[in-house]
Amino acid sequence: MIRDSKFFIENPYGRWVRDNLFSSSSSAFLTFFAGFMVIYSYRGIVGFILNPERMWTSVTYNMKLYMILAYPDEAMIRVWLSVGLALILGGLSIGFYNSGKTISLGGIFQKLFTISAVIAILIALAPTNTNVIQNDGSIEVVEIIPQDVRMLILVPSLVLTLAFFFLRNVKIKNLFNTAKVNLTYFGLIIASLYFIKIPTISLDSSGERIIPDPFLPIASTTYIPWTILYVGMLLFFFIGSLLKNRDIKIMARLIPISWFLCPLFIFSWIFKKPLVELNTVFSADIPSILVFGVIGFLIIRFSDNESVGVYRTPINIGFLVLSIVVFLLPLVFIFKATMVLLLLLLIVSPAIATTKEGKRQLFIVWVVSLFVLTFLIRGASSDTMLVTPTGSIFGGFSLTWLLAIFGTYASFPLGLALALGRTSTLPVIRIICTGIIEIVRSVPYITWLFFASVMLTVFLPAGVEFNLIIRVLILTAFFSGAYFAEYIRGGLQSIPKGQYEAANAIGMNPFQRIFLVIVPQALRTIIPTLVGSVITSFKDSSLVAIIGLFDILRIGTSVIPAQSQPVVFIGRNLEQLVFLSFFFWVFTFVFSRRSMKFEKRLGLGER
Amino acid sequence: MLGKVLKNFDIRTFWRDVRFLKWAGQVLFLILFAYSLVLFVQTGINNLQSTNIPFSFDFLGDTPGVSIAEGFETLPDSGLRMLHVGMFNMIRIMIGGIIVATIFGTLLGIARLSSNWIVEKAATALLEVVRNVPLLVQILFFQAFLLAFPRLEERDRGEIMFHVSSKGIAYPWPERQESAFMFFGFLLLTIYLARRVFKWRVSLLEKEGRDTNPFLWSFLTFLVLTFGNWAGGYKLMGIIGLISGYISAIFDSIPSIAYQGLFSAIAVFFAFRYIRKQIRNTDTGEIRGILSDDDYFRIILSGVVAVFVVLLMFMPFGQNITYFLEGDELFYKSNWGMPQFFDGVAKRFDFNISGPPVIMSYPEIVQAGTTKFTRYSPDLGKVTTVGYFATWFGVTLYTAIFISEVVRSGIMAISKGQSEAGLSLGLRRRSLLRLIILPQAFRVMLPPMGNQYLNLAKNTSLGVAVAYPEVVAVGQTLYNQEGQTLPVFLVWMIFYCSISLSISSIINYYNRKMKIVER
Amino acid sequence: MSIIKTVDVKKWFGDFQALKGISMEVAEGEVLVICGPSGSGKSTFIRCINRLEQHQEGEIVVDGIELTNDLKNIEAIRSEVGMVFQSFNLFPHLTVMQNITLAPIWVRKKSRSESEEKAMELLERVGIPEQAQKFPGQLSGGQQQRVAIARALAMEPKIMLFDEPTSALDPEMIKEVLDAMKELAESGMTMIVVTHEMGFAKEVADRVMLFDEGLMVEENTPNEFFDNPKNDRTKLFLSQIL
């Protein structure tokens, strides 16, 4: 038997092949069968993509349309700022949370070896010809990869493979930080923008679209902004590393908060360009900040006062009632939101503002959060100064992103509330929450979207009108909230009874017990599930295409296939869908992989 | 009693009494909830009244005046009928999807646990691709893929074996003959008998300790009986028809209201007794008065069954079934169609029927009416339309991927400790899988599997994006016609809720059954 | 002056009567050990004292406050009674320091620095000051139980309840927990201890009680209890466990 020959037993590679591919006769059969299937499908896919019938320019020409739809060109800098903010924050976090993991030069070569070997194998297996179905049903064979092209890629990649194969054993003790290596890879991608040429659209001097030179660099203007952003990211990476070395603890709190606020800030101020009248700022915002600042100061000042302590319960209840009343009254939204914040302050202040130092810190936090809240709400509630032909500045990927992020933001607290209600010991609350969760969950998302698009307006009081995006967000909040609730409930149920008893025994009240002991533990156990459902809501956000919002999918399936200017792309659906699949795939795949690594880093489930 | 409740109840400090706080909180919550609900509905009613289209279900009876692309009826005569077609289309995809997704998903899950490198990697690659692309994009891709095939032209006309075009996929299909019902009935009997034979041989094996080949025996039984069935053995089923004929005659002779009332009363009585028993059962032991979710489930289920039976008594369900079987006109009578149903059964299961149960029917490309267009013949072979294919394939593949994850983690969860225990007992690998791991893994897998089925059922609604007329698409067509958005939404809601409830009932039933076996 | 007084306390779980009328008194500074076979109601009884279980009949008075449905009384009693559980029940998401300071900060409304100082003191008292920044999952069972004792003490209770504090521990760790308890008893804390550690009972307890089937069968000084039990049930119990 060949299997028992020396090579397959003594050589490590031979043994690997023997163990993993030919461990038994059925395994050998499976190897051949699956190998054939894999190669066959790979060749089919390559043939499909390189088929001369495909018009990939329909994707590359419309890249801008995909990303931002009709966002005005003169405000383009705002898009770059938004991306830049996220990148800078990313650089800062990579620097600050750098695990210090290192990789040796040999390790890098090992990776490069794998990559170049895969490229060599792929190009060697790629088909030379593909079939084109003619209109009369006959099949024509077309050459897609000429031999010289194949050789042009195959030979260098083989050479590189060989080179890396020997290089990976070099015994150089130099170790590289993985974060820095990854940043270098990213830099290489950015650098490639300078010389890789992909056909794109370009404009002539009068701003008209012209049929372009098919080999302009990617979006002729993007490489400069990307370079600037990359440099910024690098800069903040080093700032982050510096902060880490200085051991500045406050950053560990500031960075997550910034990540949380970043999308809010981007959408309310950067991306939107809100029309803010100084008049309203002076007449509404500044007085509101002043008044609430003073109230907050008083609360903090007197929170540990003995004579006030007696009346704490009535004061708390009073504020609760007051904030419900304020919420129902037709007041400025800023007022309502700040009232909720004030309620929060009222709850935490007796526990934190016990010393002079604590009071000072709490007051600073209070004032800062007042400013941030007012700032964000002012931006979000103002009209935009940008004029777009579609009437909405959100479109394409920016809309997809908006729906995914804000859907999560809105649904998480709702889900938490519903989950707590469903696990409550109070029967009335439990039954109502269970009913809501079950009904919302048993109906598909798309019917809720139809509800948002055609029915929700019926239930709103006269005079109140939301645009479709907001209505979709409201329904999304409910829908994913119900799903979140079920996941959170799973986490809550995994908390042992002893934790409740221990919290009771040290005299905590129900709210303290839930929010200091139970919920933190429950959330910790279900972070993987929650990340999964955030990915799901990102994918689900594509459904809004059906109800007529111009998200990235709708642009791909109904805008571009109807284009006849400047190039005829009518009926070019397949290309768009392949691109969109790839696009979504990259995002969800990378996100899920990253989060898996992150979870390991957090060391979850420390019990 | 009251004294016990009010024990220690101090009127001066009642507002900090735990019991008072509990109930006050709940009542307050209830009031707030009810108030906002009423406010919501009231606004809706007011707004609807001020528009030209007041809320009404009238459209269910009116002729919609639009046709449906596919389904058991393409020109329905009422809105209700139209929704029925949509629901039926949805259920068609759901059932086909569940079966195929389960099989494919299980295979894929096992492939991912394979020790063969290439099989494992190929399965994982497929999983990572399908899982990370939105289902809607996939469905639209399959649609676009089919639409990219050439159109049907005049030169294509004629009988064919297998054909793909932008009109869909045509392939041969066994067409049901008169004797199909009897054949199927006999088949069920055959399966039952084969199972009995298997159990008998197993018990023999256990008793006598020799290899009795239970699987071979039961397979042979099945084979022999099915062969006989095909050769005409199904005529035995004619007995059912004979009995049905008598039952039909009996039902015809009793005044309908008598047995309607009687059966309803019996159903309600049994449901009541069962619910009372459940509540009493929980009245003992440590969990006094606390009903578990399981108990609630049982109580609700028995209530639903009772209501269902009562509805069945007063609704022409039997007629509807007959209608499906016979294609007769609907005729509503005061009775609920039981005579017609048994009549239909009697007709289907007749001693005089002969011939093979199914005949292969081959598709044909024909001229569409008198137009110059060409299409697949609707009566011959089977034609899968683009919308149906895209929806079904997309949903099935997507669910299969998630099922493979369920299967994989189920097997992994069990096999860790259990396989060591099994191997130490000297079991071989295959028996280990069959006797120890799979039965346990199945129990772990069942609840998440049920969730995947629920997701599949809900995902079929994406057919609306590729113009497949399932219930959401049909509903949308209807409200675009009539403007009755809210009633249509309520129909959707009720429909999907009942589908979800049915699936989770079935899953729950098996789940509980297995738990009982465990004890 | 008795600090805990119970009169005819009864408790049912469904149809099962767990406590069939327990009347007892504990004086300030006294150490009371309760033993008995499993299912005899001893755990239920001490859990009734701080309202983890609700008694249905009879009355419980702790430090002059009667335990009723009045929220104020419940809170007052809970903040005077510390409890240590069989399975430690430390909060796994918080460090040892945070575990101990959680209640002083949020319930007693003390400042963080003050509570942390106090926590370090307590950790030193139970002998594990070096573990302050670790998570409970990183500690051994005995260390966890000592943290649990420190956590209960941080509320400055007048009474400590121990619900089988050594049952979930490996034999070699029992001693360190018992030592901590012994030290606590010597400092004059009122303690009720449910335990099977007869050595501890002999050495530390002022009084020993035997519970059986929801009733208090015997109440005696430790010497009398072990050497000269009055009740046949006690003799049987002692013969089984010694």
TrEMBL record, chain C:
Transmembrane segments: none annotated. SUPFAM superfamilies: P-loop containing nucleoside triphosphate hydrolases. It catalyses: a polar amino acid(out) + ATP + H2O = a polar amino acid(in) + ADP + phosphate + H(+). CDD domains: ABC_HisP_GlnQ. Pfam families: ABC_tran. Keywords: ATP-binding, Nucleotide-binding, Transport. It comes from the Bacteria. PROSITE patterns: ABC_TRANSPORTER_1 (PS00211), ABC_TRANSPORTER_2 (PS50893). InterPro entries: AAA+_ATPase (IPR003593), ABC_ATPase_HisP-typ (IPR030679), ABC_transporter-like_ATP-bd (IPR003439), ABC_transporter-like_CS (IPR017871), MetN_ABC_transporter-like (IPR050086), P-loop_NTPase (IPR027417). Residues 4-238 form the ABC transporter domain. Signal peptide: none annotated. Its EC number is 7.4.2.1. The keyword ATP-binding applies. The keyword NAD does not apply. GO terms for molecular function: ATP binding; ATP hydrolysis activity; ATPase-coupled polar amino acid-transporter activity. Belongs to the ABC transporter superfamily. This is ABC-type polar-amino-acid transporter. It comes from Candidatus Actinomarina minuta. The lineage of its organism: Bacteria, Bacillati, Actinomycetota, Actinomycetes, Candidatus Actinomarinidae.
